[in-house]
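Ticket #4471: structure export looks truncated?
Reporter: QA, pipeline team
Priority: medium

Steps to reproduce: submit the single chain below to the structure queue and open the exported record.
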Amino acid sequence: MDADEPHNGERQPGERQPGERQPGEPCVVLCDLDGVVWLAHHPIAGSVAAIAGLRAAGHRVLFVTNNSGDTIAVQEAALAGIGIPAVGDVLTSAMAAALLVQPGERVLVCGGDGVRQAVTSRGATVVTVDDAGSTADVVVDVVVDVVVDVVVVGFHRTFDYAGLTRAARAVWHGARLIGTNDDATYPTPRGPIPGGGAILAAVQTASGVPAVVAGKPHAPMAQLVRSVIGEAAAIAAVMVGDRASTDGLFARTLGCAYAHVNSGVTPAGTPVSPVPDLIADDLAAVAAVVLGGWRPDRSPTAHS
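Actual output as written to the record:
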């Protein structure tokens, strides 16, 4: 077909659809961290070797996490500490949330250092709102004495009533409310603990305003991934996660395959939706299938 001839909509010989890849051809593997690579920074058996094997075979591995509390450097160092080089390969919900903030805006952060870093990298200003105290009978005097354009809420371990009051009052005064993610729980070796979504729920309830959520499975995180690897690679990618309601739906947002693992928050045998393209015990089992030339056909396949 001549380069100037209009395409008639039929596939031409040798032509690929966007994101299509051949069996065994390298792709991008998008890995959730908590419940897939590690549990509270303790590596899950076989995950480190699996990532090394995928990379050695030419597959790119990126870590797409809803953990917004830690800075990128801290997360990269933690991965390096278990033997996984990750400089430039970590994408967080804090980074996705920052895409919703405009340079020059004033942002009240109800979250961790990762959110502060992402917001300032965006060119916005993190503002401090003073409070009058921390006891129940004094904290009601918390005031918002500076202009706040945006409140960004993420996981942090110092959340308290004063922080809730600051965030809610900023929203009452007109600030937009953004959540880094809405995961209700966070997996640890001792079982789940309340996650960033639980903190966000408190702020939404107190303020009476629904948040725009940035992390998986929502569009801002998909935008972040596409900005790094491109549209075609995103469609051809494999998303590996332990929570179908987050990672599986995120795969559908990207238009890529979803490999579900039983090493995190979802017990083996639990029905999950959306239906995964692949079900495996852990990341090592997923890597073995990918290295074996698996090409998703969107029909669910179980592997143990």
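Status: closed, not a bug. The export was complete when the record was re-opened. Leaving a note from the reviewer for reference: The two ends are 47 Å apart (CA to CA).
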